[in-house]
Write a structure and sequence with these properties.
Rossmann fold, 2 domains, 19 strands, Metallo-beta-lactamase, Chain A, alpha/beta, single chain, six-stranded mixed beta sheet
């Protein structure tokens, strides 16, 4: 069932084992072992950073909300050694600093994708496809029911909604993940509109780390004078991770951006856009095929359904959920 030398296990978390070496994947490492963290979303990062290896970008965001320091950083394309295993980080296209990991040992290769987006966005390139013997891939949208529109089409719908909302005297506001979706909305506003993006405190702090690492994004924190003035005037876009209305004479018209909007009504919002930081079903399927993996392990979301879809086309696939 498992690779002969690089073995996959679940013990309160996901890990790879090889001849006495254990590497935890998006899990809290135990007993002085090592953990690889793919990105800084809370559901993929432990509370304690000791024993953690991640990219410098992810480390800088983790330090905003976690105590301590990561044990080591790894840059894209860099290869490090942990005992007899080689580990290389590659972009995953999910959020700023997110990575997939190639693990090599004793002539075998394994890739753990973490959260994955195979499509280019206004800020990031889609994930590189890495060839491997064994693949561990996420399946958040691993059902054939999830085929997202082209990103350019979604951007156009977002821009039309923003302009219409402002013309009608209201403020367009987005409730989105503070890491990832928030910066993509800022990027859309910067690229296609001549109006300011005003950001909540959490979004501002995380976006500041993007700028520290060379990603140019223009935004005005709501808690500074310029942000307060832009929000007061009303011709702006407000971006926050919580749906809370700052004091304003104008009504806020709230939108959400999530892949789930493709199939579910978001009735409590004024608008919903199927914009996701994850690959859809065709994107996941293309990655698996082009990876050449002999065995595929599937985690998260539609893991069981995606594994069955892979089995139908002759790929050895196992759901770990």
């Amino acid at each position: 069932m498992f690779p002969r030398k690089l073995k996959i296990a679940r013990r309160g978390g996901l890990l790879v084992e090889s001849e006495g070496t254990s590497i935890w994947l998006d899990s809290s490492p135990r007993n002085g072992e090592i953990g690889l963290i793919t990105h800084a979303h809370f559901d993929h990062s432990p509370r304690r950073l000791s024993g953690i290896i991640t990219t410098p970008e992810t480390a800088s965001i983790l330090k905003l909300f976690r105590n301590g320091d990561v044990s080591r950083t790894i840059r894209y394309g860099e290869k490090i050694k942990i005992d007899r295993l080689g580990i290389t980080a590659h972009p995953s296209g999910h959020v700023f600093g997110s990575s997939q990991y190639l693990i090599e040992g004793d002539g075998e290769t394994l890739v753990y994708t973490g959260d994955l987006n195979t499509y280019d966005s206004v800020l990031l390139n889609g994930a590189e496809i890495i060839e491997s013997d064994t693949l561990i891939i996420e399946a958040t949208y691993g059902s054939p029911r999830y085929l997202f529109p082209r990103r350019e089409e979604i951007y156009a719908e977002i821009i039309r909604w923003i302009l219409q909302t402002i013309r009608e005297g209201e403020i367009p506001a987005f409730k989105v993940y503070a890491l990832g979706k928030a910066q993509e909305i800022i990027g859309i506003v910067n690229s296609y509109l001549n109006i300011p993006a005003v950001t909540s405190w959490t979004v501002s702090k995380i976006t500041e780390k993007h700028r520290d690492h060379g990603m140019k994004l223009d935004y005005l924190p709501l808690h500074v004078k310029e942000g307060i003035e832009a929000f007061r005037q009303g011709e702006c876009v407000y971006i926050a991770s919580r749906r809370q209305n700052p004091p304003s004479k104008r009504r806020l018209r709230w939108a959400v951006a999530t892949g789930w909007a493709l199939r579910y009504r978001m009735s409590s919002y004024d608008a919903a856009f199927p914009l996701s930081g994850h690959a859809d079903f065709p994107g996941l399927l293309s990655y698996v095929r082009e990876s050449g993996a002999k065995t595929v392990y599937v985690v998260h979301g539609f893991a069981q359904e995606f594994a069955k879809q892979l089995q139908k086309i002759g790929i050895k696939a196992i759901s770990l959920d």
